[in-house]
Amino acid sequence: xxxxxxxxxxxxxxxxxxxxxxxxxxxxxxxxxxxxxxxxxxxxxxxxxxxxxxxxxxxxxxxxxxxxxxxxxxxxxxxxxxxxxxxxxxxxxxxxxxxxxxxxxxxxxxxxxxxxxxxxxxxxxxxxxxxxxxxxxxxxxxxxxxxx
Amino acid sequence: xxxxxxxxxxxxxxxxxxxxxxxxxxxxxxxxxxxxxxxxxxxxxxxxxxxxxxxxxxxxxxxxxxxxxxxxxxxxxxxxxxxxxxxxxxxxxxxxxxxxxxxxxxxxxxxxxxxxxxxxxxxxxxxxxxxxxxxxxxxxxxxxxx
Lengths: 148, 146
Known about the structure:
The complex is a heterodimer. Chain A has 3 helices and 10 strands; from the N terminus they run αβββββαβββββα.
């Protein structure tokens, strides 16, 4: 695929256009990446595609090689990988708190101790998420100095 | 828990056990056999019991996050193994085990108490950490919103 970046004057709107023979998995990944940079993630629920605002997502979890977006009331599946989302959503205050979970720090109400040296993040909707000991230093650092 | 995290947890347990074994030996010795004298080798005993006490930590080793029920079952197995190992080390080769029933019960209860105290200390450390992190979290959220 040929790639062109064209500078436009500040009066013209910025836009991205993808010209392709068919909307392949690769094209969908590029679109998902761009949307995530703009503060939205594509989520699938019961076969329908939705645009989920990043600010509505409480956490993102990988389960059996599938990745799910959890909002307060809904769960969506996404095609993006957890490590890709981790990279893209760093600036949106998402942080990895266990091997399979990215947590939106803005949705956490408090942190409490759990068994065996782990911590639990209590979300604003009352849901509880386990924070692995391994990820505690990174979380402490993020809370002290900011995520990005 | 695995890797470096597991080794650090073992070290923390070791030093907590050594300290608490010293206290237990003092209390048990003072109440059950206050006249007895010891040589310098007695200073090694808490270290040996500390080492024995962390051997069963192997049952807590896991590459994935354990669920609460799995964790509690493993902790129960860990306690049984510690009791068994320490009692075996103390009474190994003793032919008059029947005469030592009160001592066996006292040591067994002491091991249980030490186990509970080690876990409570660990929980309190985490409680303090969680409290500080919640304070930092609220500050962080306030700064982001501003």
